[in-house]
Write a structure and sequence with these properties.
The complex is a heterodimer of chains A (635) and B (482). Chain A is mainly α and 635 residues long. Helix content of chain A is 74%, strand content 3%. With 482 residues, chain B is an all-alpha fold. Chain B has a domain at 271-482. The two termini of chain B are 34 Å apart. The chains are: A mainly alpha (635), B mainly alpha (482). At the A-B interface, strand 1, helix 6, helix 7 and helix 26 of A face helix 6, helix 11, helix 13, helix 16 and helix 17 of B.
């Protein structure tokens, strides 16, 4: 029974995929509207069932389903692990996933690929659930690569456009670079622990010493995988391009769930990571750098989805920073709240794009507050949440990370706060330019603006409620809360907590002060954005306007894409040509032909000896006999 | 007995085919015949399972004064190779129905002659018989390519023939030398060959000769230059037979003989062989990125993929050898699938040039879906067949050397680069004048491809059956090296 429930949670979306995939030409879209979201809804109900009967599952969290790869000492079964961490992820994935599926029914209504879209989305949820439920690294890896594939399929969903296809390919390949790291990490885990199951690896790891070089190598290799999947420096450039996919895809895959897989994986392997302080430092630096770097780019973007994409990269950076100082609960908390408000932001953006008939440039928007009230209010809630304004969810989750960070290193805290202030600035810039002042598009477009239908608006409202009240999951003791999430997740992180030194306790007074400083900073930024974009109506310069060098550099996203093209893509193509035209054709093949020709030449030369003249043969024979006799005498 | 039937049945079909005139009947008979052979192989598989690894031996005296006997049988590895061969031949025959070949009776007769030779290679338990079948396989392969091939076929197939033939001669020399080292009275029986006592120097020479023969067949870098031209110029059927099955003879030979007979030399020279194989992975992958002819692209990708198998074999680890065997099966299935798809496209558009195509998914969605699934198999996505093999091969390689595994692992990135590029430029985007009128897969093509798709997921989801059947034999091979 217990196994059946667990098994059904990923199986239902898979069934949805198979039904929609096999019948993509015949199933009427009315049915698809039920099948697509329906399978996810059922999975959500089952996930709730798991969650509320958690004590049943907690007795034996490891569930063996069937054998898979078994060679000698290598034994990888299909097995699931159900513990607080995976239970939380199940709820996030199926809950947010379901809401986005419902929204998609409205958003994709007129698309000829309606069935195909839901097939891919179901396949995605299946893969994500596998990733979350896997009880060993290879099962996690199935989901890990599976979500990458779905991401590829959905970014290139409108495959007539080669720019979209290029974006899809780029996403897949960059993820594959990370996946190689993951793969090698798994191999090293196997050669070290002789197992790939979480329970065996982690229980053996507990007895390893802090700073063990093997553990460091393992964690670094796995982190390369996380860098690819969660779009951190240097493998982040695929995520902004991934916005080529339909907006619900950006909400579900490229904001709420898939890109957080790296965070989940590290939280899952927490015991390994706390034993590798050097890796943690690298994660911390990478996370902070990414958070700041991406936020700076977001300030100058004019595509509504691109701003949100860079924001996602930046927020993921925060989660990694949290992980790096051992704030596993904080990172998971932020992962959950971010899933709520970032999904909402994307769906809100989708609603705007939908209303404006495909317009994505915020310079051609403005004044949508009155025209799209539901979208505006929900978008505002999400913006406040991500900007860290209390009492919305983002405030609590970001604060928890910042607080840990301060206990770890005040310098890191300072940088992170600067990032938070930038976040407040670019998010309100986006909000103001989109919804305030007057509409800047054409008259024609103005007439066509319409609020989204209920099938899209209701998901917005549901997510807005989550974004607003999601913080309740983990209200800190400071505000009289019970730290519920920390308590719930504590068994998962217990071993890690036992190994790490307790962070210096921070007095309540300091805590208030830190919060106050952060909040004040963010409020100033919001005011600044208001001053610039509402009062002065700045930020509407066309693309070809001249800028000072630093601004131009950021507007061009630091030329990172161009740099990669120059140092990776171009050289590989050159080498490819060199290998084929020079090494292959001029060298190897010529040598082979040379050997052949030499044989032919030898043959045709020696042919002249065979003249058929008996006298000549006799002469040679006698010469030979003399030679042999001569040699005999000599020797 | 089943083993002998497996060899004689294709021969009988081959001969009967020569007597039929009407093309329609020839095709029907060929398809029915190939399915019958597959049926026998399945029966052999069942018998093998039920009699718990009894090897299905058949022995008859022949030239007993020379120590040669007609000894055939199957262990798990042979069985899997025979299953692969007999599974792919019907698929290949189905796909050939797309074309109307001149002299069809000769064409299909040659396919069955080839099938017989391949099964002979995989089931021989006698060295000389192995060699005879090994060379026999080359003849129909050469005829198919040289008679029904494309542009410049005479020059290219001549090179293919000479190149692989020269390699085989080295094997023959080594084999005869080995024969004289077997205990008295000399014999070519595998067991006797394994028992031959060799000095380290002799091992080295014999290893070198075997390696040359097998490496050319696989092919391993830098002995590969016959391969892209031959695959490209051969008719679709020929490319499928060569890439899908024939090259496995080389890997099979390495596992079956080279390792047990000269294991000291194998161990000694393994780093060299692995470096060559890994160089080939990177080299061929990088070249594949820029290929415009789809068949050529797949040809280079095949050098990379089999390079990984060869590298894995030389690590002599259990994981790699098991991975090598299952990857031989997967690679055969996937590359035949790819060639069938390419053949279907070429048949409709008269071109294989990636730059001339585009937007096919809009007009032929079934083709696009099947193509995507086979592609995922060949880029080793988890839950497809390619993943099982590559995971085990890379794991074994990692156990041997971390650096080798890291470099060889680049294949998972490169394969995504060139395969997705090919897919994007042919299937996605907008249609053009050439692809405007393209039609979707026919029933016959679907009949050829659906079994391929099923096997991709079957092996990916339930590899246990394939891994378990070869495990005792792989352990036996490893035992020889201890």
């Amino acid at each position: 029974m217990v196994n059946t429930v667990l098994f059904l949670i990923p199986l239902l979306p898979l069934l949805g995929f198979l039904i929609l995939g096999l019948g993509y030409r015949t199933i009427p879209s009315k049915w698809t509207s039920f099948i697509g979201p329906g399978t996810i809804f059922l999975s959500f109900i089952l996930s709730l069932l798991v969650f509320f009967n958690f004590h049943h599952f907690a007795i034996s969290p490891f569930r063996h389903l069937s054998p898979w790869i078994h060679v000698g000492s290598l034994d990888i079964p299909f097995a699931f692990l159900i513990d607080p961490l995976s239970a939380l992820m199940l709820l996030v994935v199926t809950g947010v996933g379901f809401i986005i599926h419902v929204y998609s029914v409205g958003y994709m209504k007129d698309d000829p690929g309606f069935n195909r879209f839901f097939a891919y989305m179901n396949l995605f949820v299946f893969s994500m659930l596998l990733l979350v439920l896997g009880a060993n690294y290879p099962i996690m890896f199935i989901g890990w690569e599976g979500v990458g594939l779905c991401s590829y399929l959905l970014i290139g969903f409108w495959f007539k456009n080669h720019e979209y296809n290029n974006a899809a390919k780029k996403a897949f390949i960059m993820n594959r670079i990370g996946d190689l790291g993951f793969l090698l990490g798994m191999f090293l885990i196997f050669t070290t622990f002789n197992s790939l199951s979480f329970n065996q690896v982690f229980s053996q790891a507990k007895s390893m010493t802090m700073g063990d070089p093997t553990i460091m190598a393992i964690t670094l290799l796995l982190f390369i995988g996380a860098v690819g999947k969660s779009a951190q420096i240097p493998l982040y450039t695929w995520l902004p391009d991934a916005m080529a996919g339909p907006t619900p895809v950006s909400a579900l895959i490229h904001a709420a769930t898939m890109v957080t897989a790296g965070v989940y994986m590290i939280a899952r392997s927490n015991i390994l990571y706390v034993l590798a302080p050097a890796t943690m430092t690298i994660i911390g630096i990478t996370g902070l750098a990414t958070a700041l770097f991406a936020a700076s780019i977001a300030i100058f973007q004019n595509d509504i989805k691109k701003v949100l994409a860079y924001s996602t990269i930046s927020q993921l950076g925060y989660m990694f920073v949290g992980l790096s100082v051992g704030a596993f609960t904080g990172a998971m908390f932020h992962l959950a709240t971010h899933a709520f408000f970032k999904a909402l932001l994307f769906l809100g953006a989708g609603s705007v794009i939908h209303a404006l008939g495909g317009e994505q440039d915020i310079r051609n928007m403005g004044g949508l507050r009155k025209k799209l009230p539901k979208t505006y209010w929900t978008f505002l809630i999400a913006t406040l949440a991500i900007a860290g304004i209390p009492p919305l969810s983002g405030f609590f989750s970001k604060d928890e990370i910042l607080l840990h960070l301060f206990g770890h290193s005040p310098v890191m805290w300072n940088i992170a706060v600067a990032g938070a202030m930038m976040t407040a600035f670019y998010m309100f810039r986006l909000l103001y330019l989109t919804f305030f002042r007057n509409f800047r598009g054409t008259e024609d477009k103005l007439h066509h603006i319409h609020e989204s239908p209920p099938v899209m608006a209701i998901p917005l409202i549901m997510l807005a409620l989550l974004a607003a009240f999601g913080g309740l999951l983990n209200i800190p003791g400071l505000f009289g809360g019970g730290d519920w999430l920390s308590g719930f997740l504590s068994p998962v992180f217990a071993d890690a907590a036992a190994v790490t030194a307790l962070p210096a306790t921070i007095s309540h007074a300091t805590e208030y002060l830190l919060m106050g400083v952060t909040l004040a900073g963010c409020l100033i930024m919001i005011w600044l954005a208001y001053h610039r974009y509402v009062k002065k109506e700045m930020g509407l310069l066309p693309d070809d306007a001249s800028h000072s060098f630093p601004v131009k550099l950021i507007r061009k996203k630091y030329y990172i894409d161009e740099l990669y093209d120059l140092i990776i893509s171009k050289p590989i193509l050159l080498i490819s040509r060199f290998f084929h035209d020079v090494v292959e054709l001029r060298f190897i093949d010529r040598m082979v032909n040379g050997v052949g020709n030499m044989v032919v030449w030898t043959g045709s030369t020696l042919r002249y000896i065979q003249t058929g003249n008996v006298g000549f043969y006799m002469f040679i024979m006698i010469l030979g006999i003399i030679l042999i006799l001569f040699l005999n005498i000599l020797i | 007995m089943l083993t002998v039937i497996l060899i004689l049945l294709p021969l009988a079909i081959s001969l009967i085919l020569l007597t039929i005139r009407e093309e329609r009947v020839i095709r029907q008979f060929a398809l029915a015949g190939s399915l019958a052979v597959f049926g026998v192989a399945v029966a052999a598989f069942i018998q093998y399972k039920t009699c718990s690894h009894c090897n299905l031996l058949f022995t008859a005296d022949w030239l007993s004064t020379l120590g040669v006997s007609l000894k055939f049988g199957m262990d798990g590895i042979s069985l899997l190779m025979v299953m692969l061969t007999t599974f792919l031949v019907p698929v290949i025959i189905l796909s050939s129905f797309n074309h109307s070949y001149s002299r069809p009776s000769a064409f299909y007769s040659l396919i069955f002659l080839m099938e017989m030779a391949l099964i002979g290679v995989f089931t021989s338990f006698d060295g000389l018989i192995f060699y005879i079948f090994w060379e026999l396989a080359l003849i129909p392969a050469w005829f198919i390519c040289a008679v029904w091939g494309g542009k410049d076929r005479i020059r290219i197939t001549f090179k293919f023939f000479i190149y692989t033939f020269v390699g085989s001669l080295f094997m023959l020399v080594a084999l005869i030398y080995l024969y004289f080292l077997t205990p008295l009275p000399h014999s070519f029986d595998f067991q006797w060959l394994y028992a031959a006592t060799l000095t380290p120097v002799e091992q080295t020479w014999i290893f070198a000769a075997f390696f040359l023969a097998f490496a050319i067949k696989i092919p391993v870098f830098p002995l590969h230059t016959w391969q892209p031209d031959t695959y490209t110029t051969a008719p679709g059927t020929g490319s499928m037979l060569l890439a899908g099955i024939m090259l496995k003879m080389g890997i099979y030979g390495m596992i079956r003989w080279m390792i047990p007979v000269c294991h000291i030399a194998v161990k000694q020279y393994a780093p060299v062989a692995i470096i060559l194989a890994i160089t080939g992975i990177v080299y061929a992958s990088v070249i594949a990125i820029r290929q415009n002819d789809m068949k050529r692209l797949v040809a280079y990708s095949s050098i990379a993929h089999v390079g990984l198998i060869a590298a894995g074999v030389f690590t002599l680890t259990l994981h790699s050898l098991e991975g090598a065997v299952i990857q031989m099966v997967s690679h055969g299935i996937n590359i035949v699938g790819l060639f069938v798809v390419i053949d279907a496209i070429e048949k409709r558009t008269n071109t294989r040039n990636i730059s001339d195509l585009g937007g096919i998914a809009l007009k032929a969605p079934r083709l696009a879906i099947v193509f995507m699934i086979i592609l995922l198999g060949s880029i080793a996505l988890p839950l497809t067949n390619g993943f099982i093999g590559e995971f085990l091969l890379l794991l074994g390689l990692f156990e041997y050397s971390v650096v080798f595994a890291a470099i060889a692992g680049l294949t998972i990135i490169f394969s995504a680069v060139y395969m997705l590029w090919m897919y994007q430029r042919t299937m996605l985007g907008r249609t053009n004048a050439i692809t405007e009128q393209i039609s979707d897969l026919t029933r016959i093509e679907m009949a050829a491809l659906i079994p391929v798709v099923i096997m991709i997921f079957w092996i990916g989801l339930f590899p246990g059956m394939f891994l378990d059947v070869t495990l005792p034999d792989v352990l036996q091979i490893i035992h020889f090296t201890k």
